[in-house]
Predict the structure.
Amino acid sequence: MSNTTFTALGIDVGGTKIAAGIVSFPEGRVGVRQVIPTAPARGGAAVLDDVVRLAEELITEAGSSHPHITGLGIGLCELVDPKGHILSAHCVQWQDQPVRERLARIAPVTLEADVRAAALAEAHFGAGKPFRIFLYVTVGTGIASCLMLDGRPYTGARGATGTMASSPLSTPCEQCGHTSRRTLEELAAGPALVARFNQRKPGAVKTGQDVLAAVAAGDADALAVVRSAGEALESVIGLLVNVLDPEAVVIGGGLGLSEGSYWNEFIAATRRHIWSEVHRDLPILRAATGPDAGLIGAAIAAWNRFA
């Protein structure tokens, strides 16, 4: 990575929205930006068409203020290996799409998992900057994690290290004998909060933020859903802290950045799930780069690769 001037286009392709912006380095300043819906049910080709069109529109909008885009980084809500190969199609079906070929017409392209991109943003310009080792967790449409070591994401052998919420928790009930095999995402991610609350009150809400608003308004059903989701999330984060021994935990994502009782209860319950007193008082911080984390981190990936 160089300290010389570098301009990158960062694009964060998530399950709900696509956020893109032109980022100038080394200061990490975001210039023009746009956000559009992802609507992944349309298929991977339609999403890719939107990403290409969005990239072209941003460069046109930037005009003479950013005459030369030196690299283009994509943060994708899928598994991405250390070489930038897409390994899954859980949400955005790009494994059979010419992603690099189409975007390379604009600028040299690098791909990264969206959670690692956001963690990069926090390491360079956000709440993780003071720490050598920190755990980044994003809670939104999906739930994922990334361990940052000396400013670099730990990718593991295959690039599949962020899947903290994708396997069944498989917790048996000693009273009734039933074993729940729901995943953490099926309990605590934004769409899960919506689905679980609407089971109690059909059609009442459309987003996870709506559920949190219902909690703030005193709705008992919303409170029950959020508390049970929080208990599951906090227990898994506590386990990761116990295993990985980070200096701090940084929380991002739409739900992770929520204010009020959700955040306050999250902090207290996470500390209860941390076993050792050595870890229990570690800093648990909101992501400082906020909703721009993904696009900034995608641009950092291009900066790291091409500067």
About this structure: Residues 180 and 203 are 25 Å apart (CA to CA). DSSP finds ten helices and twelve strands in the chain. The longest strand covers residues 17-25. The chain has a mean pLDDT of 90.
